[in-house]
Amino acid sequence: MIVALGLNIIGVTKIKVANYLPAIIIAPILCSIVTLI
């Protein structure tokens, strides 16, 4: 995601990074649930 943001700022590509933002919240929650099980 950081690379995609950098490419968007430079203007090389237009990757829609906002679509992946929920993964930042969901992934740690899922990892903590899995480690508890």
Q: What do these coordinates show?
A:
This protein has about 35 residues and is mainly alpha-helical. The mean pLDDT is about 85. The N and C termini lie far apart (about 30 Å). The chain is about 70% helix and about 0% strand. It has helices at about 1-10, 20-35.
Q: What layout of secondary structure does this protein have?
A:
Elements: H1 2-10, H2 21-36
SSE succession: HH
Shape: rod-shaped
List how many beta strands DSSP finds.
0
**Unreliable stretches covering 5 or more consecutive residues:** none
Tell me the number of helical segments per DSSP (H or I, 4 or more residues long): 2
Oligomer designation: single chain
Mean pLDDT across the residues is: 85
Q: From the helix content, strand content and strand pairing, which structural class follows? A: mainly alpha
Largest sheet: none
Distance between the termini: 29 Å
| Strand-residue proportion | under 5%
Helix-residue proportion: 55-70%
Kindly provide the radius of gyration, computed on alpha-carbon positions and rounded to a whole number of angstroms. 14 Å
